[in-house]
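Exercise 7. Predict the joint structure of the components listed below.
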Amino acid sequence: MWSWIHRLGAPKRSFFLCRRYRPWFGCLSFALFAFGLYEALWVAPPDYQQGEVYRVLFIHVPCAVLSLACYMVMTLSEVFAYIWSLTIAGIIARVLAPLGLLFTGLTLITGSLWGRPTWGTYWIWDARLTSELILGFIYLGVIGLRSALPKTTQAQRIMAVLTCIGAVNIPIIHYSVQWWHTLHQGATLLRWGTPQMDVSMLPALLLCLGAFITFAIWWAMSECERELLLLKRDTQWVKEWLERRV
Amino acid sequence: MVGQWQGIEHFWHMGGYAPTVFGCYGVVLGCVAYTAWRTRKRYQKVLAQLQVRSETGACQ
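Solution:
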């Protein structure tokens, strides 16, 4: 199994895999955004309590899910990079941090804009909101440290350990609504049993979630391709590929 | 009227919430579009640099 991981994680193979599938994810993301926005703004009926303002949740929830997912993938990649010294895993961990920070920022902005008409306040030091804010600071710390530390194996290992320590915050964010009495509502999708959302609203949320996930994959693939090209620019396969493009 | 085209008027029926809803969608979609554009631009820049480098034989 491990040899399979090494084969798949080889820079050349990873580059051509990204190159092959990236346009598909780009097109899929675009289509899902189009359908998702149509469902979210036109088709989904107004909520019986919140009225129209609940439509913000169709973009808030995917941003929140991705802010957590980016960190989880980052941590897994750091583990793979630390234990198996996989080049592509290190690159994935590096490129996902800014995207995770972007989604964390968007989660906090859309959440507070939705919170004002719904809760009567833009911000409250609630367990879910505070732990999400801490996630934003962790992302900032990871990005800052990575740019400050030299690009040595030891520095990469330090980053891997620190990223893994930061991952403690992920279950805290997810279960904060169960562990403490919070103003934030409980889990809608990521829970055991049926989703706590009406079936007339669910397609819009799932389409938007799919659009954001495929966008994140497209983005990560683009960044991985760029990083791999820069890293392996003196290798024969990159030279041959560039010559073929001319 | 689920599943039916409700026209542009539907937007204005959001009343006081229209700026909040469209503000959120604008911020998020703007960020996503800008990130996609910037990523593409950065990739093209690297590609152009490497191609110049390859053509001038600087990497040999």
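Discussion. Residues 21-186+197-245 of chain A form one domain.
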